[in-house]
Amino acid sequence: MVSRLANSDCWTIAALVCLMLAGCTTLPKRGQVSNIDPTSLDDATFIHYLASIPTVTVSEAARGVLLLRGATEEWPSYAEQRHELVRLGALKTDWGLNPEDTLDMGTLGYMLRVTCNLSPSLSEKVASVTGLGLRRYALRRCIDAGLLPYASSAQPVRGGELAAALAKAEEFVEPPTPNPPVEVAGETS
């Protein structure tokens, strides 16, 4: 009887793992961690906040990744941040990410790979035809570049991991260039 029960439990666990790896299940939502509203924090305090939370939500990661592009006053709401990340190609609209969902390492890897202008691997280029494995190969590329620690693409992102990845990613992101001077009728402005 014991071996029969253990065998049954093994199949249940194996089935759940397969569903998770296939993307058929989602990560649980993180409950409120503290009384702090992260949207009310300035950018520097927000990075310190990230280091203190157990897991990162999609909205927190969107703001964090956009910090690599400059101050987030340009994109004060999650909707504007999401729109900017979709415009940059760092998020796909068909992924169905909600702002309060827990972020997984594969999605973070994809966001960082695009934002840091890392060239996609051959496997990622092939996977882009179907979209299957896209985030997994982007994560692998970020691991190879030293941005992220080795992890499964379905693993939830911890706050300290995101803060460390953002610090490392600053080396890869080109600083924004100021607008060049414009000549008007022989004068430079």
Structure description:
- The protein is mainly α and 189 residues long.
- The chain is built from eight helices and two strands, in the order H-H-H-H-H-H-H-H-E-E.
- Strands 1-2 form a two-stranded antiparallel sheet.
- It is globular.
- The model has no long low-confidence stretch (mean pLDDT 82).
Q: What class, by secondary structure content?
A: mainly alpha
What integer value in Å does the Rg equal? 20 Å
Helix content: 40-55%
User: Which segments are poorly predicted (pLDDT under 50) over 5 or more consecutive residues?
Assistant: none
SSE order:
HHHHHHHHEE
Q: What kind of assembly state do the chains in view correspond to?
A: single chain
In the sheet with the most strands, the strands line up as: 1-2
Approximate shape:
globular
End-to-end C-alpha gap = 85 Å
Q: What share of residues are in beta strands? A: under 5%
